[in-house]
Design goal:
alpha+beta, two-stranded antiparallel ribbon, about 30% helix
Length: about 300
């Protein structure tokens, strides 16, 4: 028997398909019912969503990494309970003629993962050098300099009103938006990083498109991905920027390959170890629209350490 969450999701898929037809013979394969992830206690079982499916498999290596750098898929879902959208289906909405459809979607996700790793670390590092808050001008200069050093184009970098500060009165909270960021292959997207309390926050990747009159559509109506992160282990020294971009590429490329293969996957939770000093957990969620910055814990299925 299919769950009510699946039926609600299928209703949304049908509504989206009215404007963006896909081959619904494939949807028959989307109705996979997985067993929930096994839990170690009754309390943990009660708090674990029924969509959790443990994977515990290494992320495929597409670009070379230094020793002790690795990433692993922790959990996935048979569908996205929050949005009702499968990753593969959202790729089809964005690139209906793409082959494979998730290839160009993965590129801005890779840029987003690398941006989280570098920006959060640098912001916290600047804050440790005197005050808890990194100087905005210095932080923006770091981001601009890093992107330009890699010949990555962008339109603008701006700080946003600090919504997180209003929630928890955290003076180190910050939100920053990068418009028109082109990844190293030239695919453009808008990125918004919200750094909340401690080492947790969210990052949205908004895919760009053009309306019928040729006007560039931005966040308000387009497909997006939210990456919630917990940078739970952070070193104090320098970090290899090339390796950060490579591990971001590997994670996004693995996401792409799995979404193109497993059409019933929604949530994608992964852990990355950047040597012996840094570890981060990431929770990638597809959204067709009406996005928010709510934190979706990477630890929702199991505590990642």
């Amino acid at each position: 028997m299919k769950s009510n969450s699946f039926l609600r999701s299928l209703t949304l898929l049908n509504a989206l398909a009215a404007a963006n037809p896909v081959t619904y013979a494939e949807l028959e394969r989307y109705t996979v019912d997985w067993e929930p992830t096994k839990t170690s206690s009754a309390l943990e079982a009660r708090d674990t969503p029924d969509w959790c499916h443990g994977v515990n498999a290494a992320v495929a290596v597409f670009k070379e990494l230094p020793a002790d750098w690795k990433s692993d898929i922790i959990s996935v879902s048979a569908l996205s309970g929050a949005s009702g959208v499968f990753g593969y289906y959202l790729c089809k909405l964005v690139h209906p003629t793409g082959n494979p459809p998730c290839e160009d979607v993965a590129k801005p996700i890779a840029a987003g993962v690398a941006f989280i790793m570098l920006a959060v670390r640098e912001y916290k590092k600047m804050g440790r050098q005197g005050t808890r808050v990194a100087p905005r001008e210095d932080f923006v200069m770091f981001l601009e300099g890093h992107l330009r050093s890699r010949n990555i184009e962008f339109e603008s970098i701006d700080f946003l009103p600090l919504a997180a500060r209003a929630l928890d009165d955290d003076p180190s909270a910050a939100s920053i938006r990068v418009l028109g960021l082109r990844d190293e292959s030239g695919v453009a997207a808008d990125h918004e990083l919200s750094m909340g309390s401690g080492d947790m926050g969210t990052h949205t990747v908004s895919l760009l498109s053009r309306s019928e009159d040729g006007v560039l559509d931005r966040r308000a109506g387009g497909p997006q991905f939210k990456i919630s992160y917990d940078y739970f282990k952070m070193g104090v020294g320098s970090i290899d920027h090339d390796a950060v971009h490579n591990i971001g590429f590997n994670i996004a490329k693995d996401w792409e390959k799995n979404m193109d293969k497993h059409h019933d996957w929604g949530h994608y939770i992964v852990k990355a170890d950047m040597g012996k000093t840094d570890s981060i957990a990431l929770h990638i969620i597809p959204e067709s629209g009406n996005f928010n910055q709510d934190f979706e814990s990477p630890h929702v299925c199991k505590k990642i350490t």
